[in-house]
Structures are given as structure tokens and as C-alpha cells.
Write a structure and sequence with these properties.
Helices cover 25% and strands 31% of the residues. It has a single domain, classed as Deoxyribonuclease I, Chain A (4-Layer Sandwich). The protein has a 7-stranded mixed β-sheet, with helices on one face. The chain has a 6-stranded mixed β-sheet with strand order 6-9-10-11-17-14, covered by helices on one side. About 3% of the residues have low confidence. The two termini are 31 Å apart. The protein is built from 8 helices and 19 strands. With 366 residues, it is an alpha+beta fold. The longest helix has 24 residues. It comes from Torulaspora delbrueckii (Yeast). This is Endonuclease/exonuclease/phosphatase domain-containing protein. GO terms for molecular function: 3'-5'-RNA exonuclease activity.
């Protein structure tokens, strides 16, 4: 790939050998998040700048296979805009048979406007290397299922909060309550608990793709995910695995459709977000306190999404710096340089099958 390097962040200390064994403890793993760009979202009015041969799904799929399975193949991979048909007909079987990976997937329910087959709706998937991890459990949620996520004061706020609606071009089109919008959306979240074999550390990996508009909607969807995560952690602590808080770690990834100065990012950092007369705080602050962009200089990434007029850093990997040390990262700014040199407007193109680039890192378990 043009200008993309797996850049070391810090020097890595040598691992200590296991007691009674000559083999070194493998306390590092690679992690990737990637929005694949569903073939059913390649809207003609958006991707006018892409030549037809690079819009072709067969062409793009071959590049996706090369990137995901050969070029990068991280130990844990979080994929968004993966269709149900593509997962069940290709990825689920190939990743298991050829690479000894496990996987889990949840599809979004079809939206009201959907006229294609339900199997063509996209969702999110998590793939994990069974040579490094044992599968424990998985949970999937629909982010419009609000039962049990909010108390009465919060529900009252959601019912009263008016959100100004816009069309795809940003033009005003009336108002709805925040509760109405949340119930009408079809986003999902996927949680997979894994046990790292060499360190006996339990991970909870979360993958999601939040709604692309309205800060209040994205923030509330993320709050639902965090509150569900808190329940999952409690269940793991009292379950058969008998883990403890200091052995439990969380990695939260996905296309959050949010810039680094957004309310959502402030919430994930642990800042108090004011909802009129309510203070909203991330209940998972002890497990998540930074994202990968906090550990690299601004010149490492310009964007992670290059979709026509919509460009920015929207794809995130969140963790806690007491749990993991970021040791390597795949640079992204070279893609911007590639487009500039070739005088191209955005992605996908001949070399990149999605309008997002894969975000790939290496972590050391602390």
C-alpha cells in the first residue's frame, strides 16, 4: 500500500519466560477496525468520483480479502458494514477453515426504506485468532432497545429533547424527539469475551457502527453500549471463569462517526457531559481512558474516512493505558498523500476497496 508503514511507537521490553518453560510469554497482539463499505451503500449520488470498475463488488471484494486475510490479518478484527450474506457465505467459513479464527456477527434489522433482501443488510463482526485466544461468550444488542438502559429522569429527558432534523445535504426537515429518533434507528453492538492464552487475561471486545448524524443520538447510543458492557463485566466477574477486576480488560472499537472534538469522544474520555439538568458520565471510565490517536503525532493520520465530501477521523480503538501499551500503528497519512499525488477526490479506488482505511495497531498487555 502507498505510504503505509507499521510504525513502532515505543521500545518494547522483552517478555519473561514462563516458569518451568523455555517458551517466552507472548504478551502482544494485533488489533484492527475496518469499515468495509457495504456494496448496498455505494450510493450513486455520493460516489460519482469513483470509476465504475472500482465500484464493482467483485473487484472490491478481492481487495478486501487481500487486505484482511493477507496484508494485515490482525489477531482481533472488528469489521463494520459487513453484510449478513457476505459473512455467512464467505468470511465465516474461510476465516475458520484457512486461518483457525473464530467469529461472531450481528446484522442490523432492515430499515423502513429497505427494498432488498434482509440478508443484504449490513452489521458488525468480530474475528479472533484461536491460536492466541479462547472464546468465552458473546452478546449482541440493538441500540433501539431502550428497556433497562435509562432511569425515569433520563427517559423524561429523551422524550422532551427536540432534535432538529436534516436531510443528506444538511437542509432542515423538521424536528423529532430524541427518543423517537433512537427508537427508529437500527444500529447494533457486538461484545465478545476472550481469554488470552499466555497471560490468562480476559478481554471484552466491543464493535459498533453508530448512526452518522446528530451528536445527541450518537452519544446516547454509546451510553447504551457502556451500560450494557458494565453488566457483561459483572457477569464475567461472578461467572465460572472467576476473574478479577485487574485481570479484566476492555477494547472498544468501531466507526463512531464522530470527530475527536465531539461530545461522544469527551464522554468516552470520562468528561462530564451536561444533558440540560442531567450530568452524563461514562460508567466504564476505569476500563477506557484513551484512544490510539492520543499516542501518536497528528501527522500519522489525516483521515480514516475518505468518502467524497465526508472526510475525517471517525474510526476508533479505545482502551486503558494501565491495561495496554500501544507499541505499533499502521500509519494513515500516506493515503492522503496518495490521493493528492494522483489527483483523486476520495476512496475507494484501484488500491483501496473501501472509503475507510483499516486502522491497525499492536498492543502489549500490561
Amino acid at each position: 500500500m502507498f505510504g503505509r508503514r507499521f510504525l513502532p511507537i515505543k521500545s518494547i521490553t522483552n517478555s519473561l519466560p514462563k516458569s518451568g518453560s523455555k517458551r517466552l510469554i507472548d504478551d502482544k497482539f494485533t488489533f484492527m477496525t475496518y469499515n468495509m463499505l457495504s456494496p448496498h451503500y455505494m450510493w450513486p449520488q455520493v460516489y460519482t468520483y469513483v470509476p465504475d470498475e472500482y465500484k464493482d463488488w467483485n473487484y472490491r471484494h478481492k481487495l478486501l480479502e487481500k487486505e484482511i486475510l493477507n496484508s494485515y490479518r490482525a489477531d482481533i478484527m472488528c469489521l463494520q458494514e459487513l453484510t449478513a450474506s457476505d459473512y455467512h457465505q464467505y468470511w465465516e467459513e474461510v476465516i475458520d477453515r484457512d486461518f483457525h479464527y473464530g467469529s461472531r456477527f450481528i446484522a442490523k434489522p432492515p430499515p423502513q426504506y429497505w427494498q432488498k433482501d434482509a440478508k443484504d443488510v449490513d452489521g458488525v463482526g468480530i474475528f479472533y485468532n484461536l491460536n492466541k485466544f479462547d472464546y468465552i461468550s458473546s452478546t449482541s444488542i440493538h441500540l433501539n432497545d431502550l428497556i433497562g438502559s435509562f432511569d425515569l429522569d433520563e427517559l423524561s429527558y429523551l422524550k422532551s429533547k427536540q432534535v432538529k432534523l436534516t436531510d443528506g445535504a444538511g437542509n432542515p426537515k423538521g424536528e423529532k424527539t430524541l427518543l423517537e429518533i433512537l427508537k427508529s434507528r437500527n444500529q447494533v453492538g457486538l461484545f465478545v469475551a476472550l481469554k488470552h492464552k499466555d497471560t490468562n487475561t480476559i478481554f471484552v471486545v466491543i464493535n459498533t457502527h453508530l448512526y452518522w448524524k446528530y451528536d445527541e443520538v450518537k452519544l446516547t447510543q454509546c451510553l447504551i453500549i457502556m451500560r450494557k458492557l458494565a453488566k457483561i463485566i459483572r457477569d464475567l466477574l461472578v461467572g465460572e471463569h472467576g476473574t478479577t477486576y485487574n485481570k479484566m480488560k476492555v477494547v472498544f472499537a468501531g466507526d463512531l462517526n464522530s470527530t475527536r472534538d465531539s461530545l461522544l469522544v469527551k464522554f468516552l474520555r470520562g468528561e462530564v457531559v451536561r444533558y440540560e439538568n442531567l450530568d452524563i458520565v461514562n460508567p466504564l471510565r476505569p476500563y477506557l481512558n484513551r484512544c490510539i490517536y492520543d499516542d501518536v503525532s497528528d501527522d500519522v493520520f489525516e483521515h480514516t474516512c475518505y468518502s467524497g465530501k465526508l472526510k475525517g477521523i471517525f474510526d476508533y480503538i479505545w482502551y486503558h493505558d494501565k491495561d495496554f501499551e500501544l507499541t505499533k500503528i499502521l500509519t494513515g497519512a500516506g493515503v492522503s498523500k496518495e490521493l493528492e499525488v494522483s489527483k483523486q477526490f476520495g476512496l475507494p479506488n484501484a488500491n483501496h476497496p473501501s472509503d475507510h482505511i483499516p486502522v491497525l495497531v499492536e498492543f502489549k498487555i500490561l
